[in-house]
Every structure is written in structure tokens, then in C-alpha cells.
């Protein structure tokens, strides 16, 4: 069987820039780093040469990092197997919402919550991330968390669910959960990177409920 050729990774923007000879080493510099710029090359000379160039010469003709990362597999790489992936489902007919989280490496379901009446998908995604953070905090684990919701990731970053949903008697429990989640974020520190699941490159989020 032919031996797999080694890859070399250029990090133009990350915790430490440079040329790395393994994907794990590259990920340590880029995972969870906002606006990270990196790409793989087939040889070390090519990587060393590219490192001296401007990154847009290799990864997107001057596009913004966020726009580029969702479209170029060589830039995005592969998801980290040792991670927790979350997703939410919202029933358009009933308004019920539920969320869950799985361990990516084994596809083991770690939690499933709901359904909750009169919710939204963004609220579910937000609660799922915070639930994952709290669970991993209890276990003393700093593994990454993936979500395919940029909105929910920004809410977690801001420690506030910026929802326009009105509180009613039916969704009172849901708003209590939101209050608890926001309080947890404001009173706890965590080192888990919260990363975007790149659906266009990797396929459907493994925590998806499969009801589309």
C-alpha cells in the first residue's frame, strides 16, 4: 500500500505563525482563533515559500477569512474528532424546540433536552452550547464545541441571548432556562473553543435531528 505523503501547514494568522508539519500542530495555533488564516501544502519548500507570501495569494484573492474558510476545504481542514457537536430542531407546525449534543468521535449522544413549547431554533442552539459548556466544565474537559449557528455562537460570546421572542405562559420554562444559561456564562470561565461547523465542506451537522 502506498505511503501517505506528509502535509505541511502554513499559519499566516494564529496564536503562533509559521510552518508546521502536522495537522494537530496547525490546529493548536488556529482552532478557536478568530480570523485564523492557514493552508496545507504538499511539500515543505512550497510551504516555506508560501509563508513569505501574502495569504490571499494562496487562499482566496483577498476575500475575508470568514467568507473564504467556508468554501475552501484546504483552508478549513477537517473537524476535530475529540469534540462535542450540538444542534437544535424547531417544529414549524407546533413551535416546539429541542436540542442535543453528541461526542463526535463515537457519535455517542451526551444529552437531549426538550421539546420546549414556543421556542426558536436560535434559542435552542444557544442553550445547547451552554449546556455543552456546563457539562464539559463538570468533567474538567476543554475539548472544542461545534455549532452550525453563527447567531448562537455570537450570543454565547456576548453572554446574552438577543432573542426577539416574547415570553408567554407557554414558554415560561424556556425563559427560565435562558436566564440560567446567561447567569452561568457570566459566572464561569471556560477554555473550550466554540467553533463553527462548516456544513458546506463537511456535510450535515452530526447532531442534526434529520427532520429537514
From TrEMBL:
- RNase H type-1 domain sequence ranges: 78-212
Catalyzed reactions: Endonucleolytic cleavage to 5'-phosphomonoester
Major subcellular site: cytoplasm
Please give the Pfam families that the UniProt record associates with this protein.
Cauli_VI, RNase_H
Gene3D superfamilies found in the cross-reference section? Ribonuclease H-like superfamily/Ribonuclease H, Ribonuclease H1, N-terminal domain
Does the record bear Hydrolase in its keywords? yes
Query: Any idea of its EC number?
Result: 3.1.26.4
Q: Which InterPro entries match?
A: Ribosomal_bL9/RNase_H1_N, RNase_H1_N, RNase_H1_N_sf, RNase_H_bac, RNaseH-like_sf, RNaseH_domain, RNaseH_sf
Sorted UniProt keywords: Cytoplasm, Endonuclease, Hydrolase, Magnesium, Metal-binding, Nuclease
Q: Where in the cell is it found?
A: Cytoplasm
As for family, the record states:
Belongs to the RNase H family.
Outline what the protein does.
Answer: Endonuclease that specifically degrades the RNA of RNA-DNA hybrids.
Quote the protein name from its UniProt record: Ribonuclease H
Q: Which organism is it from?
A: Spirosoma liriopis
Amino acid at each position: 500500500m502506498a505511503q501517505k505523503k506528509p502535509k505541511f501547514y502554513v499559519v499566516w494568522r494564529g496564536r503562533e505563525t509559521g510552518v508546521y508539519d502536522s495537522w494537530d500542530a496547525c490546529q493548536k495555533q488556529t482552532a478557536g482563533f478568530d480570523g485564523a488564516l492557514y493552508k496545507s501544502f504538499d511539500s515543505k519548500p512550497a510551504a516555506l515559500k508560501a509563508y513569505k507570501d501574502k495569504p490571499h495569494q494562496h487562499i482566496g484573492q483577498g476575500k475575508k477569512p470568514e467568507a473564504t474558510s467556508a468554501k475552501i476545504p484546504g483552508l478549513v481542514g477537517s473537524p476535530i474528532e475529540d469534540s462535542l457537536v450540538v444542534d437544535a430542531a424547531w417544529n414549524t407546525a407546533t413551535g416546539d424546540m429541542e436540542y442535543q449534543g453528541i461526542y463526535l468521535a463515537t457519535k455517542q449522544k451526551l444529552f437531549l433536552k426538550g421539546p420546549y413549547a414556543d421556542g426558536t431554533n436560535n434559542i435552542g442552539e444557544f442553550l445547547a452550547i451552554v449546556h455543552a459548556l456546563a457539562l464539559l466544565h463538570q468533567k474538567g474537559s476543554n475539548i472544542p464545541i461545534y455549532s452550525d449557528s453563527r447567531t448562537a455562537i455570537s450570543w454565547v460570546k456576548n453572554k446574552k441571548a438577543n432573542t426577539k421572542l416574547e415570553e408567554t405562559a407557554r414558554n415560561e420554562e424556556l425563559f427560565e432556562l435562558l436566564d440560567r444559561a446567561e447567569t452561568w456564562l457570566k459566572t464561569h470561565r471556560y477554555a473550550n473553543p466554540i467553533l463553527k461547523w462548516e456544513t458546506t465542506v463537511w456535510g450535515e451537522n452530526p447532531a442534526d435531528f434529520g427532520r429537514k
